Amino acid sequence: MASEDNGVGPRKKRRVDDAKAAPYVLRQLLDKVPLATEDHSAKVIITCVEYWNENLYIGTSAGEILHFVCLPADPSDESNEPSFILASRLPIRSSQNSPTANGVQQILLLPMVNKACILCNGVTTFYLLPELSPAFGNTKVSHCRWLGGLDLNRMVDDPENPEKPVIMIAVQNRIMLVRIGDEARLVRNIEFPGCLVASRRGTIACVADPHTYSLLEVEHQQKIPLFPISSSQEVVEISSVEDERSPPASHPSSPPTNSPGHHTRNTSLNAIVNKLQQNQSSTHGSRPESVTPDLTTTSGASSRSSSRGRERTISPSDSNESRPRSSQPPQSDGAKPLPPLPKLSASQLLRPHIVSPTASEFLLVTGTEKSEPGVGMFVNIDGDVVRGTINFHRYPDSLIIDGSEDNDSMQTPGALEEYVIAVMDFEEDGKTYKRLEVQRWDVDPGEDERPKAWLDIPLVGDDSDSAEVVLRHTNSPSQLEFTEVSKLLRMVRLKTPLLSPSQKGGASSERGWEAERDAEEAKFARSLGGIKSSLIMWSGDQIWRLLRNPLTVQLDSALQNAQTCGEDGTTATLQRNAILSLMQSIKTAEPRSEAEYLGLNYAKQKASLLLFGDLLFMESASTNKEVIKSTEKALVDGNLDPRILLLLVPLLRCEVLQGPKGIWIHAGLAAVAEDYTKRLEKEKENLPDGDVLTSTVLNLVKRFLLSWQQKRGYGSITDETYVFDSVDAALLHLLLEQVSSSEQNAKSAAAAAASVRTELNQLVDSWKGNFERAVALLEEYRRLYVLSRLYQSRKMFGNVLKTWRRIVDGEPDAGSEVTTKGIEAQMRRYLVRTKDAQLVEEYGSWLAARNPSLGVQVFADNTSRVKLEPTDVVALLKKRAPNAVQIYLEYLVFSKNYTQYADDLISYYLDTVLSVLESSPAARTSLSESYSTYRALRPPKPTYLNFITENTPAEAWWQSRLRLLQLLAGGSLFSKTASATASSSSSVLTYSIPAVLARIEPFQNELVSESIILDGLQGRHREALRLLTHGLGDYDSAIRYCLLGGPRGSSGGSADANMASKDLQRELFRHLLHEFLAIRDLSDRLDRTSDLLARFAAWFDVGEVLALVPDEWSVEILGGFLMAVLRSLVAQGREARIERALCASLNLRVGCEYIEVAEKEAFIEEEGGVRRVS
């Protein structure tokens, strides 16, 4: 399909298809153009208009060109509209002055060569741009009916394509192709009588005579008749352009290509071209001559016109059309002439319309009568009908195709809408009006009718119903501004009586900033309203610009149309379904520019505000779940500033905060907010009752505020501090009100109260809003425990302890959320964290007296920030909490490494840890998450023990587990303050391993580190290495385990002193290699195995390694190991050779010494021994 080849296929629906949101608007360009002249008493009208490079050219029926120059807008003018001044009035003096002359018919600008072609009263003349001084001397072409036909594929100036433009000039019986450059040169003539209009893509032109449409191949001069302009006309021209000028009898072998049986509308033009190329491959002698006459030949003799054409300079004599030999083509011998076409009156003939929407398609319009509907048909360059048809309400007077003129960087290819716009008559109440019909052509509506929009044309005058209205594209677009966009999107300060003086930021000594801000916002908003358009429309003495209606204005109009105003001007009813449908359409929209991005956000915010305001004034019976759900979704999607919504909720209005410069929102949004605030003041008694507001609307507000809380930290949010402080305070206020109301009905709303209480606690625990306001609200609602959680989030330990004591002392705490034991446990944790020794002594001894185990942990915790002397603590406990002394002594043993209490301490901590694991799934989850988090770390990473030491959770049982690991491993692994003597003595710490194993057996999956230590101490090295490798993923600890021979080797002393024997290390490394080869993750398996073999190659046997390693592993993986082994083998070989050489030299030396001794003395060996011979 041609549409697929040119990227014109189904496109994503982007805009809102609302019949009331017109996609175009008209803007007056010039009104009452000074057209009249002294020489013309008749009414003068505008006949054509062109615009290029700030120059406006207006052709008149009096045969004049009015040249206007565009001046930039005055910066002080809020409308920012440019102005035009008349620079010159150029009369076009033509040689034809017939009574039916209609003045300037066409203006064709060629900026690429700085030329202009003007058709006036049937004569085409040439001028220079921009001043329209004559060009090419007196060159002119007479008897012209139309000019244009620029190649639409080369409309834009291309530095890589310096070819001069070629235009088409339609004279009475032919079409001239003329190249315009430094001179006007005739390229070729094409026989085509009565051409009225044409559109050209490359070498294919779609043309129309008064009766039919046709396709012309201008290079080879071939024609395909398409269909008649008027379907009521039964006569269709079937003839095509002749290829030969000589009679057919002279070429008997040539087929009758122009006969009806061989040339129909569906004939492929490509087939004709292919056949023509075959004919051209014949000998030069059989090449036919062209029937196209040469305008420059005064004798009228025929001249050959090849397929490429011969260019010839047009001279003044080219205007002579009265040549008998060229006006009538020769008739073939015996050929029967065709009957003449039926004569139709001018009122019966329909004006042909040809536009080209794509590089391979033309849109043609047919109909029956001007008062009847018209049909647009798409034809490709092969003459085939493609796409679906376009229906017009009436046959158009004028027609154009409009794409987007925007050049914004945010535009995405394929997302632009393209429209077909037609001028037609419209009858209403017996009167005839002119209006524009707008519809999309680039979408396939299927079986449905294409959606249409109508735009009235503001014609004035007595003859407005019969005045001709013309639509055209100008040569270059003009930059314009939509003030409606700036009025809607401009940021203004929200001013409403609902804001208290303190909320308005107080008095300021400098008010100039507000005027400066207004000016800046106005300037920026004006920049958003910029738009480019090349569409222009004229009628009589008026000229309009036809502009794309900006998306922001369309959406705002749709929202306005969804509201019904009451008698007082305020919104009475709201079409909620229409607004919800609009919101859904906006979600699928894709902004092409910054203005559209802001406009979409503005429309979402306004729609959500309208829906929420309508909900506030809605009757209680109408406030159902569907309404609440849709309003909530709209608020969340709309991203409305939550302070605007809070102003409409009387309970939460006091929580709205703003900076010294106030709240700035879009002007269109501010108008809606101010309208609703006025209604709130007038209709307080008509608001929904408190129960409905609390249970329904307030829940909606709560969820909306919770969604806004998640946006904290977004850099795109203006006044972030004030916005989120308002959100947090309003949410806290709302939750306190809800939990108080639900607790009053404990039996019927117990579940609801628990849910709200959980939300309240979560909010306070992560409080980031205004602290003073939170304290005031909690004190007002008497939520002491929640207040202590607030102090806890700010680490205000003294206030936390004081608040807890207030609760224990009996001060009322609404909700009673915490028990005495819960307060004691939290006191212990906070006493460990505080640096105030007085608080530790006071509340620690008090806690130890009430709960000895918790109280002693305050003094025994190694992480405690207050370090008291043991003697002082013992004395303090003996005085205030005697029953806690024994527990504290156990701490002394643990801290001071008193090994005689090892079993007791292990048993104590096992009680603590196992009891927590048994009772708390969260604790087991915490352990599992610590393992998974550690395994997820990428090498290099610390050992697991170091990892959990540095990232120990705040729970007490985690501390107990760390100390349990310390004892199991030998006592000094985590001891930072023990002396060297204590460290060395702790390495021989003994305890009952079977007893510990029996206790941790139910939690072996959770207590992995403990199982590793105990397995190693029992000699179960393979199981320990398996847990280190697969359970923890602690590969460095596994290697250290192999080097030291077990877990205790790492508990103290120097590394060299604790190294295991070579044989044990070899065995352990062999086990570790097996475990590394069993790692599930292939990447980790390769990395760990290659690293182990490379670093400790001397501990492995190369044959055993190669037998274990999979055969598919590459040598590169084992490169480090093999290089180390080879180096070792080479070193061993060299050492052996050196040893043999040394032994040989030693043997030689001994032999020499023996010979020397033998030469001096002789010995005889006898049975009884050796005897020296003297």
Automatic annotation (TrEMBL):
<dbReference type="GO" id="GO:0005737">
    <property type="term" value="C:cytoplasm"/>
</dbReference>
<dbReference type="GO" id="GO:0016020">
    <property type="term" value="C:membrane"/>
</dbReference>
<feature type="region of interest" description="Disordered">
    <location>
        <begin position="237"/>
        <end position="266"/>
    </location>
</feature>
<feature type="compositionally biased region" description="Pro residues">
    <location>
        <begin position="249"/>
        <end position="258"/>
    </location>
</feature>
<feature type="domain" description="CNH">
    <location>
        <begin position="43"/>
        <end position="451"/>
    </location>
</feature>
<dbReference type="InterPro" id="IPR032914">
    <property type="entry name" value="Vam6/VPS39/TRAP1"/>
</dbReference>
<keyword id="KW-0653">Protein transport</keyword>
<dbReference type="GO" id="GO:0034058">
    <property type="term" value="P:endosomal vesicle fusion"/>
</dbReference>
<feature type="compositionally biased region" description="Low complexity">
    <location>
        <begin position="296"/>
        <end position="306"/>
    </location>
</feature>
<keyword id="KW-0963">Cytoplasm</keyword>
<keyword id="KW-0813">Transport</keyword>
<dbReference type="GO" id="GO:0006914">
    <property type="term" value="P:autophagy"/>
</dbReference>
<feature type="region of interest" description="Disordered">
    <location>
        <begin position="278"/>
        <end position="344"/>
    </location>
</feature>
<protein>
    <recommendedName>
        <fullName>CNH domain-containing protein</fullName>
    </recommendedName>
</protein>
<dbReference type="GO" id="GO:0015031">
    <property type="term" value="P:protein transport"/>
</dbReference>
<feature type="compositionally biased region" description="Low complexity">
    <location>
        <begin position="325"/>
        <end position="336"/>
    </location>
</feature>
<dbReference type="InterPro" id="IPR001180">
    <property type="entry name" value="CNH_dom"/>
</dbReference>
